[in-house]
TrEMBL record:
GO terms for cellular component: cytoplasm. InterPro entries: RNaseH-like_sf (IPR012337), RNaseH_sf (IPR036397), TREX1/2 (IPR040393). It comes from Spodoptera exigua. GO terms for biological process: DNA catabolic process. The lineage of its organism: Eukaryota, Metazoa, Ecdysozoa, Arthropoda, Hexapoda. Its cofactor is Mg(2+). Gene3D superfamilies: Ribonuclease H-like superfamily/Ribonuclease H. It comes from the Eukaryota. This is Uncharacterized protein. GO terms for molecular function: 3'-5'-DNA exonuclease activity; metal ion binding; nucleic acid binding. Keywords: Exonuclease, Hydrolase, Magnesium, Metal-binding, Nuclease.
Amino acid sequence: MPPINTFVFFDFGTLRNQDLDTCDSVTDLCLQAIPRQQYLEPTNTNAPRNGKIYLKFPTHRIRIEDFNVINNFINKQEKPVCLFAHNGNRFDFAIMKRHFENINVSLADDVLVADSMYAFYDILEDRRQGEAVREIYFKGILHQLMHIHFMMSTGEW
């Protein structure tokens, strides 16, 4: 497999529901595309900036028009593309799949997905510490870090 050329970090905002398997009310979605080159050369100001999008869902559902925006954004990135979501395997990817199935659409087969939670487990090496990271996430710290990254990537920091 060739190296990933674009990392797309994403996060759904939802109306909180204790049962992750039935959480179908989405409020918003943020996608941030980061080219591989930006990670390899973080001080290179000439590294391509692939952008970000933020969508609100007033009906709490993803419509075909919303899918088209998401799909076009992903398709304009340099391939291979990998979508990253923190706790994605248990939350974001399931929500995305359900909403896309409801409107009979799907992303291209060559789009990869990864759950960043497992990176924390590997870094911390101790499952209990990994669970602590999960608690921190739900308190919003990762959202703040993503916002800081957005600000830094656009030069607004």
